[in-house]
Amino acid sequence: MQEKNVGLFSRDHQEASQSLVRSTIRLTFPPKKLKEALTILKPTIEQTKLEPGCIGCRLYQDLQEERALMLDSLWSREEDLWFHVRSAKFLDVLLVMEMAAEAPEVRFDVIGRSWGLEAIEKARG
User: Fold this and answer.
1) How many CB atoms lie within 10 A of CB 124?
2) Is 6 contained in some domain?
3) DSSP state for residue 66 in the 8-state scheme
4) Fewer CB atoms inside 10 Å of the end CB: C or N, the chain?
């Protein structure tokens, strides 16, 4: 069977002229600190969603390692992310990072292009 080249990931299909930035922080807590961490992070997430440049902010709990949480946010501009990191609101995130049982996994990724469901439809169509 011959494969069909649909060109999904070529530069011709790039829609965004500006890169997005994703911030990911994964934390593992001692059992007694998990509830406290959630209590601190839930309102922080809601406040972050209202900040300029924030496209989305979510908190995930790992199903395989229940003591692990991941704070994930997406920003329209790198400058907006760094403004957030320097803000007083981010102090709560730093506090929770200090509560973690292990060193946090922190990543900032620049996203030049992204696709959604339409990519699957095009690839399979």
Assistant:
1) 7
2) no
3) T
4) N
The tokens describing 49, both together, are 């969603």
Domain residues for 104?
A: 19-124
Mean pLDDT of 51-76: 96
- For 79-103, what is each residue's pLDDT tens digit? 999 999 999 999 999 999 999 999 9
The Cα 19–Cα 92 span in angstroms is 27
What is the CATH number for 112?
3.30.70.100
User: Which sign, positive or negative, has the C-alpha torsion 79, 94, 45, 67?
Assistant: positive
| Placement of tokens 């959630």 in the chain | 38
State the Cα–Cα distance between residues 70 and 125, nearest whole angstrom.
Answer: 34
pTM: 0.80
pLDDT digit string, tens, across residues 8-58: 443 433 344 478 999 999 999 999 999 999 999 999 999 999 999 999 999
Q: How many domains does the chain have?
A: 1
